[in-house]
Amino acid sequence: MQYVWKHRLWRSEDMVTNTGKRVRVIDPGLLNTDAGPDFFNAKVEIDGRMWVGNVEIHHRATDWKRHGHDSDKAYDSVVLHVVAKDDAPVRRTNGELIPQMVLEVSPQFNADYASLLNATVDVPCAAKIRQVPAITIVEWMEGLAFERLHGKVERIHQLLESFNGSWEDVCYVTLARNFGFGINNEAFERLARRTPLRLMGKHSDSIFQLEALLFGQAGMLDAQKQGMDAYYAQLCSEYAFLANKFQLSPMESEAWKLFRIRPQNFPYRRIAMLARMVEGGFRLMNRILEAEGEKEMRALFEVELSGYWTTHYSFGKPHERATAALSKRSIDIVLINTVAPLLYAYGELTDDYEMTDKAIRLLEDLRPENNSIVTHFVNCGIDCPDALTSQALVQLKREYCDARKCIYCKIGHSLLSKAARGQ
């Protein structure tokens, strides 16, 4: 009802109150998301007389009294009560009658809205997306891309506050989280927080000690485990020494998910790569800020593993030759979820618009993500030329389609507007 009122999607311009007085809406007012009437500062002409005030909307007129508005002076400023069903008169606290009107909505609008809301498919409007004007979709994709980016930036702002303004610490935790590639994000962030840079920095000259710290803190080392190789035993011994020295406690090993993950994507190699990124001192944020263009940024993550991890995907049985630490597609994901948000957040907080522009250019230069969400929308008719657009599609699916917020989606709004107007 609020949606229909806000967007003027009523059935006819010739509306009347329940006493037969003609109503003409000059301005529906501003939607109120807090306590009080639904719309502020509306301008409504009733029987030729202009009223400026608030509008309250209910499904049933009896909701006015049921919600306690008849004894609440905050609602005395209501100049029009809009309902779907007129089953009672409504009055101000002084007993004065408030004009009331039934909002007429197209039956097709109601049917289409119910169809979207109750759809059993993942994307309720999938079959109708091609009916939406291309300009509407392009503008919505841009808005969604920035909406998703700002969500990541807000997370970075929160991290920055918790780390007292240390961008390298924020970069370290953000990178670690995204090494989880979705399924192990939470576990990787917990690992990074339990093994902070200030601790890692004390041992940044030894890749062996860095691996012992990270694997130990990850709960992946057990000195009592039988049948493991010599390197595993050495890591267990070294971690026991470091844990005693720094009073460390490991995560529970159950935090890590391995089910349905290919060996090359096991968290062991990601942890080994995190150790390599810290080796010699972690200055990744500074290097990100200095990097020019996608090629230089990509090179920051084209890191080769050494020693044990050149022939292992996990502890135990070796392979002839393990794959690269991160594939090109995996580096794309790191650039999308780590580098671009960090650049944008830094530029926003320092008023450095070159950095925010660099973040957007990076997303525009990167290939779109290759996942089921992007594939589905492309099949529905939405073009996806780059990572900026693929991020928009992920935002659309997770925040609008899955939540059935069709009336807040510009694609859904376009379709419903046509239905309301009988098109």
What would you note in describing this structure?
- The structure is a single chain.
- The protein is of the alpha/beta class.
- The protein is built from 17 helices and seven strands.
- Strands 1, 2, 3, 4, 5, 6 and 7 form a seven-stranded mixed β-sheet that branches.
- Strand 4 (39-46) and strand 5 (49-60) form a beta hairpin.
- Helix 4 (134-162) crosses helix 16 (387-401), helix 5 packs antiparallel against helix 13 (328-350) and helix 13 (328-350) packs antiparallel against helix 14 (353-365).
- The longest helix has 29 residues, at 134-162.
- The chain is elongated and about 90 Å long.
- The mean pLDDT is 94.
Number of distinct helices: 17
Name the poorly predicted regions. none
- Largest sheet data: 7 strands, mixed
| CA-based shape | elongated
Q: How many strands?
A: 7
Mean pLDDT equals 94
Assembly status: single chain
Write the layout of secondary structure elements.
Layout: H1 2-6, E1 15-16, E2 22-27, E3 30-31, E4 39-46, E5 49-60, H2 63-66, E6 78-85, E7 100-102, H3 107-117, H4 134-162, H5 167-178, H6 185-194, H7 197-200, H8 207-217, H9 230-246, H10 267-278, H11 284-290, H12 293-299, H13 328-350, H14 353-365, H15 372-380, H16 387-401, H17 410-420
Parallel strand pairs: 5-6, 6-7
Antiparallel strand pairs: 1-2, 2-4, 3-4, 4-5
